[in-house]
Give the backbone structure.
Amino acid sequence: MSTVGVRHVEGITLRQAAVIAGIAYFLSPITYAEFKLYPALVVTGNVAQTIHNIQGNGTEFGIAILCYLINYIERFLCLPRYFG
C-alpha cells in the first residue's frame, strides 16, 4: 500500500478526522438546503409547478440561495488548505 502524498498530522488520527468531517458536513447549511428546501421548491419534470413554488415561497428560495452562497464561500476560504 502506497502512502505517496499522504501527510501525517501529529495529534489527530484518521478516524478522528473522519468524524470531524462528518459532523461538519451535517452542520453545513448546504445539508439543510439540499434535504429540506430544495425538495419543497423543485418538482422534477414540472417547470410550471417549480416556478409556482418559488414564487409562493420566496423567503425559502432566498434562504436556499444563501445556504449555497455560504457553502461556496467556505470552500473558497478552505482552498489554500487543500493546496498548501
User: Anything to note?
Assistant: The chain has a mean pLDDT of 84. The longest helix spans residues 58-83. Helices lie at 14-27, 29-41, 47-56, 58-83.
